[in-house]
C-alpha cells in the first residue's frame, strides 16, 4: 500500500475507532467485570462478590422474575398480533386493491413517532376520566362503571395496544417488500392447479417469505426484551411490581437505589437474554432455503 | 407488474367489501387518536373532563402558548434540533470515513475492525449504560451536549458503518483511481468523487439516525439532568409527570401536538425514502 493510502487509512479510521473503543467497547467490557462487584457507584469501595449478584438476582429476587415475566408477555403477545396483522395487511395490499398506498402510508406513520410521544398519547387514550377508549366503548357497556385501563389488573394487556400500534406499520412495509418480490406467475400456476387463496398463501407466500419473517421475529423479540420508554413514562418514572420490566428494574437499581453492581448484573442478564433469544429464534425458524 | 399482481387471492377470500372494512377500521385506529388529540388540545380543562367527544366551544389557543413558553416545549424543541443535527452530521462523517477506509483498502486488521463494529449491533445499549455514566462523568461531560453527542455517535457507529460499507463496496474502485491519476489526493478522491456517489446510503443512514436520536430517551435521561438542557422526549415525559400534579391538561395535549406536527411534516416529505430504507436495510442486511 502506498504511503498516502496508508496515511488515509489511519486518518480515516482513527476517529471512529477511538470513539467506539472508548465509549462503546470499554463500557461494555467494564460492565462484564463490574457485575462481579458490590458497588454503590459513589465510593471507591468495591467488594468483589464473584457471581454473588447473579445468584441473588436469579435465586432470591422475586421482582426480577416478575419483571422477566412481563418482558416475556410483552415480547410474545404483541409479536403474535403484529406478525399476523402485518402479514394479513401485506397480503391485502399486494392484491391490487385501490388505496393500497394510502393504507401503507397511514399504517406506517406511528413508527416515526417517539416512544415517549406514543406513551403520552396512549396515557390520554386510557385516562379513566377523559380518555378516548372509554368514550368509544361506553355505548356498549350498559352502565357499567368506567374501566381503569392502567390499574394492576389491566396494565399488561393495555400495554400491548401501543406496542402494536407503533410497530405494525414497520413490519407491514417489510413484508410488502418481501411479497412484491414473489413473481406473480407462481400464483397463476397455483390457480391453474386449483389452489384456493389460503393454500396459495401457505404454500407460496409463507415459504418464500420465511427469511423476512425470521428477521421480523428477531427484531420483535429483541425489542420486547429491551423495552423501557413505554413502561417508565407510563408509570410516571416509578414502575411498580405490576409493570416493572428488566430495563426499568435495571435503571431503578442502578440510578435510584445506587446498587450499581447489581444494576449492571441485570444489564448483563439482559444482554445474555438478547443473545440467547436471537440464537433460539434463528434456530427454530431455520428451514431449507427456497431459491426462486 | 401492477396489473399481474391484481390476480392475488386475498380480496376474493374475504370479499372485497369486508376487506375494505378491516383496512378502514385499522386506519381509523391510527388516525382517530390523532384527530382527537388535535381538537382536545384546543379545549380547556373543564371541557376536557366534561366529554371526550365534544368539540371545544371556542378554540383555546392559549394552551399552545402555555405549552411553548411556560412548559418549555419551545426550548426543548430547539435543544433537540441542536443535538440531533450535530450528532447526525458527525455520525455520517465519522462513519463514512471509516467505512471508506475499510472497504477501499486492504490492510492488516481490516476484517477485525469491521467485525468489531458489526458485533456492536448485537449489544443492547443498556449493557453499557452504568459504566458509561461514570465514564462521561469522569470526562467532565455529564449534563453537557458534548457528552450526550459523543455517546450517540459511539452507539450509532455499528449500524452506520455497516450500511455505508455496503454502499461503498458497490462503487467501482476505478473511479477513485481515475481521480488520483487526474492529480487528486486520496482525501480529495474520497471527498469529491466517492462520497457524492454514496449519497443514497448517506440519505438512508441519515434518516434512520435522525429518527433514532430525535426520539432517544434512555441515554438522555441518564446523561442530562439540567432542566434547560432537556431534549424533547425528556421534556415531554417530564411534562406528563408534572401535569399529574398541576392539572393543566390542555397544555399537555397542546405540547404533544406541537411535538407531532414536525414529525408528521417530515414524514409526509420523506415517507418514500423511509420505507425504501427499511427494505434496503432489512432485506439486504
Bulk shape of chain B: globular
Helix content of chain A: over 70%
Helix content percent band of chain B = over 70%
Structural class of chain A: mainly alpha
User: What overall form of chain A do the CA principal axes indicate?
Assistant: globular
Q: Termini separation of chain A (Å)?
A: 42 Å
Mean pLDDT of chain B: 88
Largest interface: which pair?
A: A-B, 107 and 104 residues
Total discrete domains of chain B: 2
Strand content of chain B: under 5%
How many DSSP-defined strands of chain A? 2
Assembly annotation: heterodimer
User: Percent of residues of chain A in beta strands?
Assistant: under 5%
Task: Write down how many β-strands of chain B occur, each being a DSSP E stretch of 2 or more residues.
Answer: 0
Unreliable spans of chain A: none
CATH class of chain A: Mainly Alpha
- The fold-level CATH name of chain A is MetI-like fold
Amino acid at each position: 500500500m502506498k504511503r498516502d493510502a496508508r496515511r488515509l487509512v489511519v486518518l480515516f479510521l482513527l476517529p471512529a475507532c477511538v470513539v467506539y473503543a472508548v465509549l462503546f467497547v470499554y463500557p461494555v467490557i467494564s460492565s462484564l467485570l463490574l457485575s462481579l462487584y458490590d458497588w454503590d457507584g459513589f465510593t471507591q469501595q468495591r467488594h468483589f462478590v464473584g457471581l454473588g449478584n447473579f445468584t441473588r438476582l436469579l435465586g432470591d429476587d422475586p421482582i426480577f422474575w416478575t419483571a422477566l415475566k412481563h418482558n416475556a408477555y410483552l415480547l410474545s403477545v404483541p409479536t403474535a398480533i403484529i406478525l399476523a396483522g402485518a402479514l394479513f395487511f401485506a397480503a391485502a395490499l399486494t392484491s391490487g386493491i385501490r388505496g393500497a398506498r394510502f393504507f401503507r402510508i397511514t399504517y406506517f406513520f406511528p413508527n416515526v413517532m417517539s416512544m415517549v410521544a406514543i406513551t403520552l398519547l396512549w396515557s390520554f387514550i386510557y385516562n379513566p376520566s377523559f380518555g378516548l377508549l372509554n368514550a368509544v366503548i361506553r355505548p356498549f357497556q350498559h352502565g357499567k362503571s368506567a374501566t381503569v385501563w392502567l390499574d394492576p389488573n389491566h396494565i399488561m394487556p393495555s400495554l400491548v395496544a401501543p406496542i402494536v400500534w407503533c410497530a405494525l406499520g414497520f413490519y407491514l412495509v417489510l413484508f410488502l417488500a418481501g411479497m412484491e418480490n414473489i413473481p406473480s406467475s407462481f400464483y397463476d400456476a397455483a390457480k391453474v392447479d386449483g389452489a384456493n387463496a389460503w393454500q396459495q398463501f401457505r404454500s407460496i407466500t409463507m415459504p418464500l417469505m420465511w427469511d423476512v419473517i425470521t428477521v421480523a421475529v428477531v427484531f420483535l423479540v429483541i425489542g420486547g426484551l429491551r423495552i423501557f420508554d413505554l413502561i417508565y413514562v407510563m408509570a410516571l418514572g416509578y414502575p411498580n411490581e405490576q409493570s416493572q420490566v428488566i430495563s426499568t428494574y435495571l435503571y431503578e437499581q442502578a440510578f435510584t437505589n445506587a446498587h450499581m453492581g447489581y444494576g449492571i448484573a441485570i444489564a448483563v442478564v439482559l444482554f445474555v437474554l438478547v443473545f440467547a433469544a436471537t440464537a433460539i429464534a434463528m434456530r427454530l425458524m431455520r428451514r431449507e432455503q427456497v431459491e426462486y | 407488474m401492477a396489473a399481474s399482481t391484481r390476480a392475488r387471492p386475498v380480496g376474493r377470500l374475504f370479499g372485497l367489501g369486508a376487506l375494505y372494512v378491516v383496512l378502514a377500521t385499522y386506519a381509523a385506529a391510527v388516525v382517530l387518536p390523532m384527530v382527537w388529540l388535535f381538537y382536545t388540545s384546543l379545549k380547556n380543562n373543564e371541557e376536557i373532563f366534561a366529554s371526550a367527544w365534544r368539540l371545544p366551544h371556542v378554540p383555546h389557543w392559549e394552551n399552545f402558548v402555555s405549552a411553548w413558553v411556560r412548559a418549555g416545549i419551545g426550548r426543548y424543541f430547539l435543544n433537540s434540533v441542536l443535538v440531533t443535527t450535530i450528532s447526525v452530521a458527525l455520525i455520517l462523517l465519522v462513519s463514512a470515513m471509516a467505512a471508506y477506509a475499510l472497504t477501499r483498502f486492504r490492510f492488516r486488521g481490516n476484517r477485525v475492525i469491521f467485525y468489531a463494529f458489526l458485533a456492536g449491533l448485537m449489544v443492547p445499549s443498556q449493557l453499557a449504560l452504568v459504566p458509561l455514566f461514570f465514564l462521561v462523568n469522569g470526562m467532565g461531560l455529564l449534563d453537557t451536549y458534548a457528552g450526550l453527542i459523543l455517546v450517540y455517535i459511539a452507539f450509532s457507529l455499528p449500524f452506520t458503518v455497516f450500511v455505508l460499507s455496503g454502499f461503498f463496496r458497490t462503487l467501482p474502485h476505478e473511479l477513485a483511481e481515475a481521480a488520483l491519476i487526474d492529480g487528486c489526493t486520496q482525501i480529495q478522491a474520497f471527498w469529491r468523487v466517492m462520497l457524492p456517489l454514496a449519497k443514497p446510503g448517506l440519505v438512508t443512514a441519515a434518516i434512520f439516525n435522525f429518527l433514532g436520536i430525535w426520539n432517544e430517551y434512555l441515554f438522555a435521561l441518564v446523561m442530562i439532568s439540567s432542566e434547560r438542557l432537556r431534549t424533547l422526549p425528556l421534556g415531554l415525559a417530564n411534562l406528563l409527570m408534572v401535569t399529574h400534579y398541576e392539572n393543566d391538561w390542555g397544555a399537555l395535549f397542546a405540547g404533544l401536538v406541537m411535538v407531532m406536527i414536525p414529525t408528521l411534516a417530515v414524514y409526509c416529505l420523506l415517507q418514500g425514502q423511509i420505507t425504501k430504507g427499511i427494505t434496503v436495510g432489512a432485506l439486504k442486511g
